[in-house]
Write a structure and sequence with these properties.
Chain lengths: ~260, ~280
């Protein structure tokens, strides 16, 4: 028999149990302790609100807008992050020269820039895309920079000893060495991109799931608020799953995909 | 026979019979650290290796064995002196001669297999770099897997193999393009004694079968004597050649040769030389 710590069903069973217990505690909190439904609606009320939300045609438009902002912002961050990461990773003098600036820009809470982006790019999707891209850019760039420098010396010696030229060295060594770092950055970045887009929508404009959150709040519609949050959670999970799936496809050999065998 | 007109008189004191496959002349290597400090790693090394010869480099850690091997392999340039492969300079200015490199097969302390390639693709990587088509690569990889005892593991990934198997795959990779010179830097250092004995026998079989010239770095005197035609003992700070000992037993050898008085005498002599350094 399979040892229980390695059983495949374990994560599924665990998640289901946690979910059920949470729902039960939630229901109990509302019915037994009499918490106001304005503060905490019952799970059933939230479920109803979700169904309501999904059966409203305009909701899908809002989902589409947010998804679009996240996707474009993320892809822009990916392109710029890759380029900047490779350049800074290769040219160490350049990285040293701009390091103070990099640190400063990283430390600044970038969400504070949203009003500026609104002034510059208006209330439309552009300012949200830029916010999403700004947040997603740094984890990608930093990871790529690290990845470019993390090619193992022994592996380099192999290629050097074989007299490999530039392009084969890139194709067979540098690129595959860096890929795990790129994906590590992407997994963080896709979550950041969602945050950027949603926070952007909070502060300006009249479309997107962030806007729906604000509308529900203004209407003191707690079940509706919960429903949108649930939708956002699902959206975030799906986007993460896409990136994670791409990783499993692109670097099936990596430890983070295979899972280390513990003897 | 060779072309005497190309012979440069006095190719060092150790010139073996015929043209040397690999040769260093008065090689010096100084590593420069950042803060102006420098390490004199090798001093006035001259050595000539004949085709088909098996040379062991032994010495304490830090005596410059690895540095010397890396210089022979063309991975680093000597500070002064010449490195010749088949009578031609390995370094043309600051560029390595690609023709000479093509004859070298390198095996390092670590197997250094690429984790993103299967064993088969790892073994055939040098062929891929040479533009050999996929089918030929597959066939060659399968053949080499047979030679090093990895048949059935062609499609496995390096992480699925044990340390000894990975090291054998690394040897297969070094053999894939039929190099005439094998340069090995403590290839079995990380293996247990039993596996190591087996690997040494296998290496001997391969080197005899392919007729390759081998330069083998190790810190085990017994291993060095067992494998080599000549054992080169290096002494440290700076790395110099302390002695060169010819081992008179015919190759290939059985493990039993280690219990022969003649063998033990060579080992003892070398060990004494090593101890004299302290």
């Amino acid at each position: 028999m399979e040892p229980i710590a390695k059983a495949r069903w374990l994560p599924w069973a665990g998640t289901t149990v946690v979910l059920l217990v949470t729902l039960l505690a939630w229901q109990l909190a509302v019915t037994v302790f009499g918490i106001s439904p304005f503060t905490l609606p019952t799970p059933a009320a939230v479920g109803e609100a979700v169904v309501d939300l999904l059966s409203t045609p305009s909701t899908w438009g809002h989902i589409g807008v947010t998804l679009f902002e996240v996707a474009v912002g993320f892809l822009a961050a990916l392109v710029f992050g890759l380029v900047a990461g490779v350049v800074l990773g290769r040219a160490e003098w350049l990285e040293r020269a701009v390091r103070p600036v990099l640190v400063a820009v990283q430390v600044v809470p970038k969400v504070a820039f949203i009003p500026l982006f609104v002034i510059w790019f208006g209330f439309g999707v552009t300012s949200k895309i830029i916010m999403a891209a700004t947040l997603a850019f740094f984890p990608i760039m930093l990871n790529v920079m690290l990845g470019v420098r993390s090619v193992e010396r022994g592996h380099r010696d192999v290629m050097l000893g074989l007299g490999a030229k530039r392009w084969p060295t890139f194709r067979d060594l540098e690129l595959p060495s860096t890929m795990p770092y790129v994906f590590a950055g992407m997994e963080v970045a896709v979550v950041f991109a969602v945050i950027g887009a949603i926070v952007g929508e909070y502060l300006g404009g009249n479309e997107g799931l962030g806007y729906l959150v604000v509308v529900s709040l203004n209407a003191l519609d707690a079940p509706g608020l919960f429903a949108v949050i649930l939708l956002l959670a699902v959206l975030g999970c799906l986007l993460y799953a896409v990136v994670n799936g791409a990783k499993r496809f692109a670097i099936p050999w990596h430890d983070s995909v295979v899972g280390r065998e513990v003897a | 026979m060779g072309s005497p007109s190309l012979d440069k008189g006095g190719t060092g004191t150790l010139a073996a019979e015929g043209a040397a496959e690999l040769e260093v002349q008065a090689v010096d290597k100084t590593y420069r650290a950042r803060a102006g400090a420098s390490t004199h790693a090798l001093s006035d090394i001259s050595l000539s290796v004949a085709p088909g010869e098996f040379i062991s480099l032994v010495g304490r850690s830090g005596c410059g064995k690895t540095t010397l091997l890396r210089i022979l392999a063309g991975l680093i340039a000597p500070t002064s002196g010449r490195v010749l492969a088949g009578g031609r300079d390995l370094w043309q200015g600051s560029k390595r001669d690609p023709a000479a490199l093509g004859k070298f097969g390198l095996v390092f302390q670590d197997a250094n297999l690429f984790p993103w390639f299967s064993i088969e693709d790892n073994i055939a990587l040098p062929l891929k770099l040479r533009g050999v088509d996929k089918r030929t690569r597959r066939a060659k990889a399968a053949e080499l897997c047979g030679l090093v005892g990895l048949t059935g593991f062609e499609k496995s990934y390096p992480r699925e193999l044990s340390g000894g198997m990975r090291q054998r795959a690394a040897i297969a990779r070094a053999l894939s393009y039929d190099p005439s010179v094998l340069l090995m830097d403590e290839p079995f250092g990380a293996l247990d004694a039993l596996t190591r004995d087996r690997m040494n026998l296998e290496l001997q079989r391969i080197s005899v079968a392919t007729g390759a010239t081998v330069v083998f770095v190790t810190h085990s005197i017994t291993e060095a004597v067992f494998l080599a035609d000549r054992v080169v003992l290096l002494s440290p700070r700076p790395g110099r050649i302390r002695s060169i000992t010819r081992v008179g037993f015919d190759r290939p050898r059985e493990l039993d040769v280690e219990s022969e008085p003649g063998f033990q005498h060579v080992v003892r002599t070398l060990r004494h030389q090593l101890d004299e350094e302290d």
